């Protein structure tokens, strides 16, 4: 009998330890696939599908999940990884090099969520031992030098295509390449070509000012408005991204232009109620601000706080119109 009790206690202890190992503090696992193509990534049973090359898993509790990567229907990688509670692990994957750990970041610093959209700390947070840039950044610098050496736009485009076939570019990097072209139509061709593969499509609107002629800028914005990405953001826009967007948004001279920019720039991204408040304050006319507030409701992260936006309107009719609108939403 004593043996049975002892065995039972040992079994319970083993189960408790296993449970504790898998539930102590959540982590985040981000994966960047440095190849073109349509990939799917599983972390245990959770699936993310994307053509942009970046995959984000939040609220990971299992410290030893199985990471599986599919290229189309072909399984190209599958193995158990070690996850560290309260850390974001950023991995890079290619079929040639396999899976490599790029960065290990603290999710919270001084009890504040400290991270941006992918692999950096937000500027407002000072972190000791901040990780450096990814080791492959020198590859892009070499690409820029090589593109500068080409005398004609079509050759520049071929060089960039040869590089980006195997490595995803960011909006910032494309912004560095566009001024190397002589013609606006060549710049537009590059932008359209790379959009479906860019790692941060929600930032792509910032390239508008890279074009010389208004007609090209308009064509670029119309192109963006027509695009849909498979990347879904489950967290609000980071402070850095919002600051850049706010500056661009406020610079638009007319209210209608502000709204048009928002509809193009805020692709598959969320705002907080406080961020929407700041944008409403940029409108010259309250009715235009009200229209924007109604449109922005669907992309707001904390809808339970949306009623506070009513305080941004001076006229009682607009306050009531917004509250009536919110009450009818589900």
From TrEMBL:
Domain DUF4476: 137-224, 237-325
UniProt keywords, alphabetically: Signal
Residues in the signal sequence: 1-20
Source superkingdom: Bacteria
One Pfam family matching this protein: DUF4476
InterPro entries attached to this UniProt entry: DUF4476
UniProt name for this protein: DUF4476 domain-containing protein
